[in-house]
Amino acid sequence: MSTSDKLNVLKNKLKEMESVLIAFSGGVDSTFLLKVAHDTLGDKCVAVTIHAMMHSNREIDEAKEFTKALGVKHIVVKVDDFDVKEFIENDEKRCYYCKKAVFTNIKNVAKDNNINCVLDGTNLDDLGDYRPGLKALEELEIKSPLKESLLTKTEIRSLSKELNVPTFNKPAFACLATRIPYGEAITNDKLRMIEKSEEYLQDLGFKQFRVRTHGNLARIEVEESEIHKFFDKNLLKITHNKFKDIGFKYITLDLLGYRMGSMNEGIKQ
Predict the structure, then answer these.
(1) DSSP-assigned letters across all residues of the chain
(2) Are 254 and 169 in contact (CB under 8 A)?
(3) pLDDT at 221 over 80
(4) At residue 210, what are phi and psi to the nearest 5 degrees?
(5) Where do transmembrane segments lie in this chain (predicted)?
(6) What percent of the chain lies above the pLDDT cut of 70?
(7) What's the confidence (pLDDT) of residue 173?
(8) Are the beta carbons of 202 and 170 closer than 8 angstroms?
(9) Which of 7, 130, 201, 229 would bridge with 209, disulfide CB 3.0–4.6 Å?
(10) Beta-bridge partner residues of 23
């Protein structure tokens, strides 16, 4: 099936749903889905964004800007105390507990707004990574029309570019909790340290990055093609001092560079 055929399949699926509430993070997939759904359903398409401690404030602001420019109704639900015990304890099913809580909240928003279907931006490629949160989506009957239309990440980026969606070349960005090793408790303080350090890397111009934490150690991952930028004594010293100011005791550079889901290495799929 061609990419354009898959896009038509997606549009037809959306038409059949009649009204949709899209879980909108501002990332590549949910932004593309929101654009197509809004073009297809008009005001029968609504975006909802959960703003809790594991989310980047910068990402939330970008999500608000896009929905405003698109002219779509956007509901932001601020969760000041995300106290899901199993999520905070951070075992290997952390994502399941998080998705269960977040999408239960989103389903309530859909019910309050008389909307038929809740959608998320899972694509076909997501099935290849360790993602326990997908089970929670299935249990809550959340629909994933990008996956159902057999759209891959590459195809979504290509179609986004054709449709003038600004996130077509946006780097992948996951919830901040994915930077913390399983078994290490998740706290708001740790998440804010990660957020500040990743904003620093973004402001330096790095495209794809992660700051993984291991206790009081920060492990910086950047694209392999950008590692050479750190072969500069001045930048190393400035980065070290910045991360120390943020609260880390030790700062390291991962020699293999950025790897999606590197915290999942060694987990049985």
Answers:
(1) --HHHHHHHHHHHHHHH-SEEEE--SSHHHHHHHHHHHHHHGGGEEEEEEE-TTS-HHHHHHHHHHHHHHT-EEEEEE-S----HHHHHT-TTHHHHHHHHHHHHHHHHHHHTT-SEEE----GGGGGS--THHHHHHHTT-B-HHHHTT--HHHHHHHHHHTT-GGGGPPP---GGGGS-TTSPP-HHHHHHHHHHHHHHHHHT-SSEEEEEETTEEEEEE-GGGGGGG--HHHHHHHHHHHHHHT-SEEEE-TT---TTGGGTT---
(2) no
(3) yes
(4) -145, 150
(5) none
(6) 96
(7) 84
(8) no
(9) 201
(10) 48
What integer is the mean pLDDT of 209-234?
A: 95
**pTM for the whole structure:** 0.89
pLDDT at residue 241 greater than cutoff 90 = yes
Q: Identify the sign of the CA torsion 185, 181, 87, 26.
A: positive
Q: Which two tokens stand for residue 158?
A: 């290509």
Using only the alpha carbons of the chain, give its radius of gyration. 19
**Going by DSSP bridges, is the β-strand pair 250-253/217-222 parallel, antiparallel, or unpaired?**
parallel
Residue pair 230/219 in contact (Cβ under 8 Å)? The answer is: no
pLDDT at 249 over 70: yes
- How far CA 174 is from CA of 29, 178, 230, in Å, comes to 12, 7, 24
Q: What is the mean pLDDT of the chain?
A: 92
Read off the amino acid at residue 88.
Answer: I
Interior/surface letters 141-166, b for 16+ CB within 10 angstroms, e for the rest = ebbbbbbebebbeebbbebbeeeebe
Q: Which of 102, 2, 122 is nearest to 51 (CA)?
A: 102
